[in-house]
From TrEMBL:
It is found in: Golgi apparatus membrane; Membrane. It is a multi-pass membrane protein. One of its GO terms (biological process) is vesicle-mediated transport. It comes from Raphidocelis subcapitata. InterPro entries: TVP23-like. Keywords: Golgi apparatus, Membrane, Transmembrane, Transmembrane helix. The keyword Transmembrane helix applies. The chain crosses the membrane at residues 12-33, 105-125, 131-151. One of its GO terms (cellular component) is Golgi membrane. Its main location: Golgi. This is Golgi apparatus membrane protein TVP23. Golgi membrane protein involved in vesicular trafficking.
Length: 184
């Protein structure tokens, strides 16, 4: 008989949890390997990477955000006569229990995704690979859109960032004060 995983570590939504990772990984791996696998087939490589990025964006925005962290954002094109408006929703406390393991991995992946695409863009830029630079730029835009959208939805993320900023500022002020006192 195999031991059961603790309830907090077992994904509540295993398919959503898997999809949250797989499209990001597939897009990044295909981008890195596309010149090795499909050498000289830029159009095919570009289309496959963009489709994978679009699938990731749609999945995170419409499925995994709702299921894994209880957050949702969208752009309302018919909000008013003046144009569009972004809408943000967050489940109220106690409305649904969020698995802390899923929440932690959701945020790690949502934050890491644009960072990895920025590094890929930097690599393409340094390699003077101008055509392939379009793919990581698209990855940065789509990944950052999800990051900003979910950050604006999450009251917890805002509080965490504010406390982190306050801690950084107070630590910097304390270091300056100690340095000033040390000079006296």
């Amino acid at each position: 008989m195999q031991p059961q995983a603790p309830a907090a570590l077992a994904p509540t939504h295993p398919v959503a949890f898997f999809c949250h990772f797989i499209f990001k990984v597939a897009a990044l791996v295909f981008y890195i390997m596309c010149e090795v696998v499909n050498k000289g087939q830029f159009v095919t490589n570009f289309v496959v990477c963009i489709v994978l990025l679009a699938m990731d964006f749609w999945t995170v925005k419409n499925v995994t955000g709702r299921l894994l962290v209880g957050l949702r954002w969208w752009n309302d094109a018919h909000a008013s006569e003046s144009g569009t408006a972004w809408r943000f929703e967050s489940l109220q406390e106690g409305q649904r229990e969020i698995n802390p393991h899923e929440r932690r991995w959701f945020w790690i992946v949502v934050v890491a995704n644009p960072i990895l695409w920025v590094l890929s863009a930097f690599s393409a830029f340094l390699g003077l690979d101008w055509a392939y630079l379009l793919i990581p730029i698209t990855g940065v835009i789509l990944g950052s859109s999800n990051l900003v959208g979910y950050f604006k939805c999450s009251k917890e993320a805002k509080k965490s960032l504010q406390s982190m900023g306050t801690n950084i500022i107070s630590a910097a002020m304390q270091n300056r004060l100690q340095a000033a006192i040390g000079r006296v």
